[in-house]
Amino acid sequence: MLVSAKEMLEKARDGKYAVAQININNLEWTKAAILTAQELNSPIILGVSEGAGKYMCGYKTVVAMTSAIVENFNVTVPVALHLDHGSYEGAKACIEAGFSSVMFDGSHYKIAENVEKTTELVGICNSKGLSIEAEVGSIGGEEDGVVGAGECADPDECKQIADLGVTMLAAGIGNIHGVYPANWAGLSFETLEAVKAKVGNMPLVLHGGTGIPEDMIKRAISLGVAKINVNTECQLSFATATRKYIEDSGDLKGKGFDPRKLLNPGFEAIKATVKEKLTLFGSVGKA
Ligand code: 13P
Q1: Mean pLDDT confidence for 5-14
Q2: CB < 8 Å & 24+ apart, contacts of 210-216
Q3: How far is Cα 64 from Cα 127, in angstroms, rounded to an integer?
Q4: How close is the Cα of 22 to the center of ligand 1, in Å?
Q5: What is the per-residue pLDDT across 32-44, written as a single tens digit (0 to 9) for each?
Q6: Closest CA to 122 of 112, 133, 106, 110
């Protein structure tokens, strides 16, 4: 069964660790993330962007596939299926399709419209027992063709959105999706502290988890971050392992062209990356 992310995030916040959101792209990704969480007795959130949802043949397919994988392997750790950077319409479609958690990213709207739309979606999610993430201050980099500048969120606006009753809040603190450029200034802990001071107990979300140095991850967790999103790093591990398999002529040996063989090194590489993240974020053994 897929569960809301509320309880796992509150436990993480209180226990000073973070739950990983691992973005998924297909069956191999989903299986790798779920099995690794189960092996390490860790909670996990599976993130699905609108583009990935479309790629995987629609939100209903994603719900069916994910729930069936959980059932097939008798998974006992909490698994949440979460829409990543959802539009207003996308959030409604995922709620309808059976996601257990959604993010409504209204960061590009003026704050009044972000408040209005977030309020409506909070009402729907609360009535159905789903968790909901909101965002203030856009995250930099590119995701599904949307390019954000990597703003630092306004702490007062964060409080305004947090007070609407969302489960978790993503606040821009200079983080960027994708690989960080060599001249990246690092996370703004000053912003994170100011946001935390305004929003109190609200679990905070750190997007752009790929490539953030370990010391910054640990400091962010100590300052109230309870969920960290990772996408690009699994894509890079998958691509590197697949490239190696082909370059080593793995597909030309025996039945190495069989997709179940060809995709296996990439699958194992995703598992290794997820293991590394769950260990770094401190959620191992916390299911
Ligand atoms: P990365 O691709 O940088 O890991 O970011 C993932 C993310 O924040 C998804 O919302």
Answers
A1: 98
A2: 210/177, 210/178, 210/179, 210/180, 210/236, 211/179, 211/180, 212/175, 212/180, 212/187, 214/280, 216/186, 216/187
A3: 22
A4: 9
A5: 999 999 999 999 9
A6: 133
Beta strands in 127-247 (DSSP E): 131-136, 141-143, 146-148, 168-171, 204-206, 225-230
Q: In the CATH scheme, what is the code of domain 6-281? A: 3.20.20.70
pLDDT tens by residue, 241-254: 999 999 999 999 99
Nearest-CA neighbor of 81 among 103, 112, 106, 51? Answer: 103
Answering whether pTM is above 0.85, one says: yes
- State whether the Cα torsion 127-65-167-76 is positive or negative: positive
Ligand 1 mean position, distance from CA 256 (Å): 32
Q: Which of 239, 228, 240 is nearest to 279 (CA)?
A: 228
**What single-letter amino acid sits at 186?**
G
In the chain, where are the structural domains located?
A: 6-281
* Beta-carbon contacts of residue 238 (< 8 Å; ≥ 6 apart): 28, 29, 266, 267, 269, 270
For residue 57, the SS3 value is coil
SS (H, E, C) 168-196: EEEECECCECCCCCCCCCCCCHHHHHHHH
Name the active-site residue from 84, 105, 144, 251: 84
The residue whose two tokens read 């370990």 is 214
